[in-house]
Amino acid sequence: MSILSKRNGSDPASVAFDSVNSGVAKGADVIIIDTAGRLHNKAHLMDELSKIKRVIQKVIPDAPHDVMLVLDGSTGQNALEQAKQFTQATDVRSLAITKLDGTAKGGVVLAIAHQFKIPVKYIGVGEKMEDLQVFNKYEFVDSLFSLK
After folding, report:
1. What percent of the chain has pLDDT over 90?
2. Paired strand residues for 133
3. Residue 19 and residue 139: Cα distance in Å, rounded?
4. Using CA atoms, how far apart are residues 50 and 41, in angstroms rounded to an integer?
5. pLDDT tens-digit profile of 13-58?
């Protein structure tokens, strides 16, 4: 595993391009590009997602192979608007919902998955690596209606 980073203020598309070039050169099986911190109500940040896709396709024409939208389970209905904006800006293919270790149940993810036809892959129930779990629809629904 290697991590490529640049100084603060670097062009995100340039960082993505360099990351993909580096990964291909090293024979990496997986290259993860984290575009965290994007606000769905900031048009220029959303536009950068399209630019990132274009530049990585210069190296790997059929990339990206997955675009995962990570939503905060505690944001409630705001997550629906985020999903709408992100699916308009890029080809979201999967979901992860985080912060389900508190009082948030993340039920809005069901509406998002249904409305946008995007499968949920992971849930986060804490801050450690092992707290990221593969989504199990049966356990998730049970937890929504749990009286505990």
Report:
1. 39
2. 123
3. 36
4. 15
5. 999 999 999 999 999 999 999 887 666 556 777 788 888 999 999 9
Instruction: Give the span between the Cα atoms of 82 and 63, in whole angstroms.
Output: 23
**CA-to-CA distance for 65 and 44, rounded, in angstroms?**
24
Tell me the DSSP string of 82-139.
HHHHHHHHS---EEEEE-TTSS---THHHHHHHHHT--EEEEE-SSSGGGEEE--HHH
pTM to 2 decimal places? 0.82
CB contact set of 80 (below 8 Å; sequence gap of 6+): 108, 111, 112, 115
Say how many residues make up the chain: 148
- Domains in the chain and their CATH numbers? 9-65 (no CATH), 66-148 (3.40.50.300)
Write down the pLDDT at residue 104.
65
